Each structure stands twice: as structure tokens, then as C-alpha cells.
Amino acid sequence: MRLFSILPAMLAGAIALGCAGDPTQPSAELAGPHHAVVFHERTQIIGSIIESSCTGELIELSGTSHEKISLTETATGVFHLRFYFHIHGVGTGLTTGASFVLDAVEVSIFPDVEESFFQGTDEFTTVLIGKAGAPNEVIRFKYHLTLNANGTTTSSFEDFTIRCT
Prior knowledge:
165 residues; seven-stranded antiparallel beta sheet; elongated
């Protein structure tokens, strides 16, 4: 019963201490608000067969890929485009039954995006981890995208490679 009579006093003291001292007010140099808009977000199922560069064996991959694309306007009116990918999957060798794990996060940020067009190139590298003696594979994905002011793709490419480690 005594605890209940102490709690209001402790709460009042905490509020008084929090309000003590200099008044809390914004500084004279406030930066404008940052506005992030997520304009694309999805999770999709991965289902693919790749060839091991180490053994030549076909590996069946399955899992999920979560993608989020957002655009942020800074206080100065500059736009930053951000791509976020989280890929999680497992693989099985179709001949030997070897097991593999893929768990990767990629974040690509394109600063200073103009309203009139977009151009970006990025490269993503991760490791397909072999379990129980299966060899690891380095996966590299490079892409480029150019959009004009109307949002029409004017240039794009993708390059996907797998290399034995």
C-alpha cells in the first residue's frame, strides 16, 4: 500500500525535474522537415535454379526477397532515392543434395536525384554459403537504370555472375 502513495510523488518529481532549467524551445537555425515517401514495397517468393561455378551442379534456390524503395526530400529540396533489399533463401544441389544458405541485405542510395530524370548504377555482391563442405559461391549483380522526365526507361542493363571461392 505504501508503494502506491509514493508513485504520485515520484511522478511529480520527475515532471518537475524534466521541466527545470532553461526553457525548451527550438534553436534559431531549424532545418526544414525531411519527408520520406515509400513508393514501392513488396515481398516476393524466390524460386530459381543456378549452376554452381565450382562443381557445375545445378542448385535450386528458394526463399523470399523484400524490397523497399523510398524517396526523401531534404530541407534544401534535394531528393535522395533509396533501394533496400533483404534476400533470404536456401539452396539444394540437385545431384548431391548439398545445402546452401543465402542471407543478404543491400542498400543503394542515389543522392541528388533531379526531377527531370534519373540515372543510377550499382553493384551488389554476396556469398551463397555452402554447408557441410559444399563450396561457397560469390554472387555479383550489377545494374543500371536511366529514366527520362516522363518516367520512361531509356537505358538499362543487368549483369549477374557466380564465382567459386
